[in-house]
C-alpha cells in the first residue's frame, strides 16, 4: 500500500462517534495508527518499482538504506498524524521519531553548523559514532571508577531499566549528514537524562524536552513540551511548571550545546567535572522507581563479570 493510497484511504474514511481516549476517537486512533504504520513500513523499493526499476537500482538511488522519500503533502500528513499519535500515546517512539524528522526544518543545518564550529563536533561528524549495546560495551563501562561518566551512564541504565537499543533509525531526512545529526541527537538523549539526573517517565521526559528545546531548538521538543503537560494530573503538572520548567529553561539555555559533546570519548571523565564544563546542573529532585543503591549493585555485578572487583 503506497503512502498516497494510505492518505487517500484515510481521508475517505468516515469515523462514527464513539468512546474517546486522550481526546481522540478510539476507532479513528486505531485507523490512523494503521495508516501511519503502513506508510512508515513501506519500502522505498516500491516507489522505484513503479518506475520500472529493480530493487537493486532502487537501493542504489537511496542516500542511505532506511530513507523514505516524502513529498511536501506526505511530509505534512505524517507530521500531523504523528503529532496526534504521540499526543495520544507518548510511548510510541516511532511516532515521536517521525514527528521529529518531519518538523525539523532548518534546525538540523543549524545544529550541524554548531558541530562544525568545534573540533569535538567535527570529529563526531567525521566518525559518525552510534550508541547501542552492540557499539558500547556496558560491562566494560561498569569497570570505570565510581563518579566517572561511564559508570554513571551504566548505573543510570540499570536504575531506569532501559537499554540504548530502542532508538528508531532516521527515515525521512534526505541529506545523509543531516540525517546523522538527527540520529546523534536521538541516541544522545539518554546522556542528557544521565547528566541532569532525571529518570524515565512522562513528567520527566517533558521536563527534558524543555531542556532540549532551550539547548538545541528542535521544533519537536517544543511541540512535546507545549502539549505534554496536558496529560499530567494537576499535582504533577503544578510541580512541572513551578520547579522543572524554570530549571530546564535556565539550565538548557545557559549550557554548552550538547550536540557537540563526544560522549564516547569522555567515559573516564568525572561526571561532576563534565557538568561544570558543560554548564549543566542536576534537575530538581525526582522520584525514582529503583533506589540508587540497587542500581549501583547491578552495575558492580557487571564489573565483576569483567573480572574487576
From TrEMBL:
This is 4-hydroxy-3-methoxy-5-polyprenylbenzoate decarboxylase. Its main location: mitochondrion. Residues 36-57 are annotated as: Disordered. It catalyses: a 4-hydroxy-3-methoxy-5-(all-trans-polyprenyl)benzoate + H(+) = a 2-methoxy-6-(all-trans-polyprenyl)phenol + CO2. Belongs to the COQ4 family. Residues 38-51 have a biased composition (Low complexity). The keyword Ligase does not apply. Pathway: Cofactor biosynthesis; ubiquinone biosynthesis. PANTHER family: UBIQUINONE BIOSYNTHESIS PROTEIN, UBIQUINONE BIOSYNTHESIS PROTEIN COQ4 HOMOLOG, MITOCHONDRIAL. The lineage of its organism: Eukaryota, Fungi, Dikarya, Basidiomycota, Agaricomycotina. Its cofactor is Zn(2+). Zn(2+) binds at residues 189-190, 193, 205. Transmembrane segments: none annotated. It is found in: Mitochondrion inner membrane. Lyase that catalyzes the C1-decarboxylation of 4-hydroxy-3-methoxy-5-(all-trans-polyprenyl)benzoic acid into 2-methoxy-6-(all-trans-polyprenyl)phenol during ubiquinone biosynthesis. GO terms for molecular function: 4-hydroxy-3-methoxy-5-polyprenylbenzoate decarboxylase activity; zinc ion binding. Pfam families: Coq4. One of its GO terms (cellular component) is extrinsic component of mitochondrial inner membrane. Keywords: Lyase, Membrane, Metal-binding, Mitochondrion, Mitochondrion inner membrane, Ubiquinone, Ubiquinone biosynthesis, Zinc. It is a peripheral membrane protein. Component of a multi-subunit COQ enzyme complex, composed of at least COQ3, COQ4, COQ5, COQ6, COQ7 and COQ9.
Amino acid at each position: 500500500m503506497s503512502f498516497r493510497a494510505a492518505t487517500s484511504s484515510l481521508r475517505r474514511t468516515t469515523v462514527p462517534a464513539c468512546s474517546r481516549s486522550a481526546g481522540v476517537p478510539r476507532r479513528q486512533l486505531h485507523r490512523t495508527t494503521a495508516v501511519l504504520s503502513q506508510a512508515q513500513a513501506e519500502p522505498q523499493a516500491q516507489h522505484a518499482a513503479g518506475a520500472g526499476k529493480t530493487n537493486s537500482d532502487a537501493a542504489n538511488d537511496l542516500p542511505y538504506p532506511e530513507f523514505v522519500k516524502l513529498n511536501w503533502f506526505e511530509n505534512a500528513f505524517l507530521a500531523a498524524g504523528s503529532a496526534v499519535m504521540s499526543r495520544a500515546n507518548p510511548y510510541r517512539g516511532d511516532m515521536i521519531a517521525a514527528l521529529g524528522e518531519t518538523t525539523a526544518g532548518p534546525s538540523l543545518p543549524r545544529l550541524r553548523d554548531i558541530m562544525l564550529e568545534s573540533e569535538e563536533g567535527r570529529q563526531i561528524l567525521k566518525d559518525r559514532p552510534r550508541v547501542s549495546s552492540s557499539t558500547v560495551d556496558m560491562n566494560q563501562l561498569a569497570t570505570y571508577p565510581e563518579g566517572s561518566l561511564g559508570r554513571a551512564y551504566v548505573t543510570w541504565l540499570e536504575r531506569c531499566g532501559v537499554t540504548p537499543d530502542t532508538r528508531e533509525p532516521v527515515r525521512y531526512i534526505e541529506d545523509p549528514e543531516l540525517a546523522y545529526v538527527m540520529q546523534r541527537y536521538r541516541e544522545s538523549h539518554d546522556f542528557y537524562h544521565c547528566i541532569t539526573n532525571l529518570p524515565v517517565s512522562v513528567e520527566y521526559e517533558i521536563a527534558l524536552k524543555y531542556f532540549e528545546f532551550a539547548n538545541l531548538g528542535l521544533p519537536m521538543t517544543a511541540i512535546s513540551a507545549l502539549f505534554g503537560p496536558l496529560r499530567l494530573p494537576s499535582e504533577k503538572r503544578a510541580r512541572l511548571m513551578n520547579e522543572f520548567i524554570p530549571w530546564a529553561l535556565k539550565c538548557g539555555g545557559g549550557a554548552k550545546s550538547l550536540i557537540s559533546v563526544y560522549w564516547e570519548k569522555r567515559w573516564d571523565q568525572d561526571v561532576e567535572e563534565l557538568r561544570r564544563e558543560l554548564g549543566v546542573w542536576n534537575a530538581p529532585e525526582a522520584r525514582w522507581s529503583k533506589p540508587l543503591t540497587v542500581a549501583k549493585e547491578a552495575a558492580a555485578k557487571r564489573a565483576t563479570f569483567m573480572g574487576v572487583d
